[in-house]
């Protein structure tokens, strides 16, 4: 614990959200996480307020005076990453890549160096790995760029000095939790240290117009500060997700000042690093069981891209008094709601049965259009009737048991047709505007009973 003195004042800071308080709490009043308040030195004098700006003075401008030349985007060489970034890297952009340790953040960034190196000099700062380790990994990834400069350093001032001297076109910081600003008394990885180091790097990089990638570990036990404490500082927040047991990784955009936030990128981790998955629907549907009840294919939108995913439902008699409900990749409360609607409006009874829902491939179905496939997979398991494997369903379920219309009908149908599905269940209202494809049956359904009967 830091000792108190008048010079080094301490405060309790939540390592999840950065909430600051003079007294300790067991549960953070701001983000409601338990046991995340840590005592830290607070910067009495803002260490990071050194002027890194080249001009030194601030001036006001009208919009017409501002030259939008900077909008030219650099490609990273990975199309999936470009898509998530909104088309490429914008000059001076600060990008945060968060994710569990070992998910592949360092691999992704080292891999794009080969392509970025063709455009400009790259400074790759690692506070975690030695030069040798990075070299070995680069060899494995086939990165040989002469424009890639490695710096193993954790002191932020030294990094900024190096950056101002070497003038790289791209800066990569791996990871922010190992970085340390000397003027701040707290240990590296603490909230104050992470926040101030990020701001210092940001100020220097914005003044020089250098795009920066910052790697940040997601940490659940609160020992080190997670990406939440700097999300508001940076321009773009990407999360790298995926199950450690499977090789698929999803890159998801949470915040983007230069593009849409709904996009995802899909990768597969192989021996030679990350490989882009060009056809995620095919990947998500591979290995689907045949002639088994309780599985249904859903069509959801991730940003501008339609994705087909397999939804599995399992219903079995309850062993104890209380039936269990469990959902992986689907909202738990939404599942309870759907079960209630199925009982009350459609006459399918689940009250003495356990119900489980699982979405394959580590995907999360947050879109209302996933309601219908989830409900159908549960009914299929309840009745032990197989849903044909050329059927796709999408539609939102209302509390009256009605199927409500959804958006992006054309892209959804297009994707299903492309992957060879022959029967598409969609909301009745959407049927009118939908274009027909040869050999594909479009069935507009009004309520959940209709929908299930249309399958048989
Ligand atoms: P890494 O990028 O070090 O993760 P992070 O920086 O997010 O902590 O990824 C490490 C994991 O990736 C490790 O478990 C090994 C695996 N990996 C491969 O499967 N193939 C490869 O070519 C590389 C470089 C790593
Ligand atoms: Mg790493």
Q: Descriptors for this entry?
A:
nine-stranded mixed β-sheet; alpha/beta; binds thymidine-5'-diphosphate; seven-stranded mixed β-sheet; 456 residues; Ribosomal Protein S5, domain 2; Rossmann fold
> Any low-confidence stretches, pLDDT <50, length ≥5?
1-6
Secondary structural class? alpha/beta
Radius of gyration: 26 Å
> Terminal Cα separation, in Å?
66 Å
Query: What's the total count of β strands?
Result: 21
Which ligands are bound? thymidine-5'-diphosphate, magnesium ion
Major sheet details: 9 strands, mixed
Q: Largest beta sheet: what is the strand line-up?
A: 6-5-7-8-4-9-10-11-12
User: Mind telling me which CATH architecture of the largest domain this is?
Assistant: 3-Layer(aba) Sandwich
Taken from the alpha-carbon principal axes, the silhouette is: globular
* Residue-averaged pLDDT: 87
